[in-house]
Amino acid sequence: MDALNCFDLFDVESQLTDEERLVRDTVRRFVDSEVLPIIGRCFAEHRFPAELVPQLAELGLLGSTLREYGGAGLGSVAYGLICQELERGDGGLRSFVSVQSSLAIGAIDRFGSDEQRERWLPALARGQAIGCFALTEPQGGSDPGSMRTRAEPDGGDFVLRGSKIWITSGSIADVAVVWAATADGIGGFLVERDMPGFESRDIERKMSMRASVTSELYFDGVRVPRRNRLPGAAGLRAPLSLLSDARFGIVWGVLGAARACFEEALEFTQSRLLFGRPLAHTQAVQLRLADIARRLTTAQLLALRLGRLKEEGRVHPTQISLAKWNNVRMAIDVARDCRDLLGAAGVVTEHCAIRHMLNLESVITYEGTETVHELVVGKELTGTAAF
Question: Which domain holds residue 312?
């Protein structure tokens, strides 16, 4: 029998279409040639590689599932493979693309007016404008229903007051999709960078997602024209539905982080000599490598099945929660184990394990903490919410 691909033990490759493989391989080449040579230094210097944005746009990776306005109209699995390959490079880059496509573009496409779509979607898909998604607040975290940011009607406009935190791309965004409480429930508003009273501030001293821009946003009486309200967004269900799409990207993205760590650890243990033989020739190391392969394989199959369900229009939010919980937990445990297998070499950014490990500390927290997703599954099983 032919030897198995140690990074694809259950032959997920054979379940992909020709288009999906082409998309994956194109992004893989981009990551290998453009991302990996610079990303360790970007992480160390706490710098987002903005010079890559035009190339991301040229490859059609911004708004890749958008079927009009310059989008590539790709399916869910193809989008997942994009996330996988980008996060193989770095979670910060995948996070930028996820926010641009699933959240900023997704909000305007799903809930916006024709005028809003015409104005923003082509520019966002081409990378000529950057978007962000402002939901989380300092006191809110996992409880977005406690939102304090408010939008009060004033003549023909709304006046926005409040703040948001942990906003990816917040300080570089040309347009922020801001969620605020109104007299008739939660609403979405397009706040443009140059509107008076709108201020952004980068969050410094991060030890995670250092190659990503993360910001605080402040709204001090920002006057937002009524035409900038998203007409189709009514209630908290609107932003939460968009987060389901973003979580789907995470389910796939973390496969890339885990694979990068696994590839590095496998190569290292095969070449590192200790007590007269390679580390990979010892039982202890082989047991650990086998367990990493088991966990990664299980997560790959879960992601693929979730993608097909999404393409069929049959995916349930609880399935996304289960997959996000499982795959991120898998990835962070794999990254930590691989970091340990590298020994002292594992703590420097010349190797990727420590960088992915630290990035995954954010991924396991944002867009629903692990505990929240466990409770989502618990509610599905028991019929009772225990949040």
Answer: 237-382
